[in-house]
Amino acid sequence: MADAPVSYPFIWEAPHHDYIQWNGKVRNDPTGALGRNVGEVLGVFGRFTIMPGSNAEPRIRSTVRIPNLGKLETLLRTLWSPQWTPEKFITTNDTVEEVAYGKKLFHGETPEKFLCSSCHVPITREAPSRRVRSNAIPVEVMGVDSTAAVGFCTRAFENTSEPCPSAKALTDAVVSVVRTDAAAAGHIIRGTTCWRWRTRPNQKPADAVHDETCGAADSDSTSDSKMSAEPKTASYKARALNGIWATAPYLHNGSVPTLAHLLRPNTRPDVFFTGSREFLPDEIGFKYRAEDYPAGVPKSKFDTSRTGNLNDGHTYFGNYFETHDAEFRALMAYLRTL
Question: Could you tell me how far CA 225 lies from the centroid of its own chain?
Fold first, then answer.
């Protein structure tokens, strides 16, 4: 979204997720994946031409290469999350005891009962048929910047005398392109968006229907329900944390530079910089201070005061890890092993 950009998500496990996107709004089935990829190609650099034909079955010629998209999907299934290799990093030398204690903290097996694993359900990363279950956590519970989540669930087409021509043309193009794969015909839109055009006798033109259960893990993203613009439907997805050490900056909008800042919210900087590939193993993230970038080295400024960039939320621990250093080191040690 233009006013609520999100961080690039890490793509390992993507084919194994039940729902995808940061807000967990899109059912992840093979047809939906192909449809999304076709739409992205057309939206970025692909071209399509609407040929003469009937209104019901427009003839569309495009530059999308379906076989190549299929190869990318197949290749993605071979991608595993990276594993921490201590010998490659100068670290504080995590001990076996620290990792074991951190694991207990993560799973709520200590008096603090943090239960990180209740949201971030662990998986067996080596299992070829692994399935990653997504948990949709309401923004009110997480306390994070809600702009992207609310914007997704409240967006609508402007009502006009006719359905939005550009939206309809793009939808027709995606469906037409995917019909080169007979198995995808008629299913391409299902699971790819919480919006769809509905046509009924005597219906007013350009009525858009929003799925009231948009993003719920057990919902049908094409169900026909009443318009709901309630922010309570907005959520973000909590996912398995394997490889989390390699995914800085953190939160959906990339507003927290390191994992240390995430666990110690009072230390989060208001402004930091991205662009460095130099890793900070102790903090688990990349260099983020202005002085880390010599003159002439490219960098991007991240200002957390801007709408969509807020670094609030995920403060379930309060300031616990700011005052309990042994527990902080233990949980960081365990997270490095995922």
Answer: 25
222 close to 140: Cβ distance less than 8 angstroms: no
In a domain? residue 154: yes
Amino acid at 257: P
pLDDT tens profile 103-125: 999 999 999 888 899 889 888 88
User: Does residue 132 form part of some domain?
Assistant: no
Domain encompassing residue 328: 86-124+241-337
CA separation for the pair 179, 247 (Å, rounded): 36
Sign of CA dihedral 316, 320, 322, 326: negative
Query: Which parts of 77-206 fold into alpha helices (H)?
Result: 96-106, 139-142, 147-154, 165-178
3-state secondary structure of 116: helix
Tell which wins on pLDDT, 14 or 177: 14
What number is the average pLDDT over the span 168-193? 50
| Spatial separation of the C-alpha atoms in residues 187 and 181, rounded to whole Å | 11
Q: Which amino acid is at 239?
A: R
- Shared domain for 211 and 277, answered yes or no, is no
Q: Which residues contact 292 (CB under 8 A, 6 or more apart)?
A: 273, 276, 278
Q: How far apart are CA 332 and CA 85, in angstroms?
A: 14
What does the alpha-carbon distance between residue 169 and residue 322 come to, in Å, rounded to a whole number?
Answer: 54
Tens of pLDDT, residue by residue over 41-67, are 887 888 877 666 655 555 667 788 878
* Amino acid (one-letter) located at 74: T
- 208-210/279-280 β-pairing: unpaired
The reply to whether 46 and 107 lie within a common domain is no
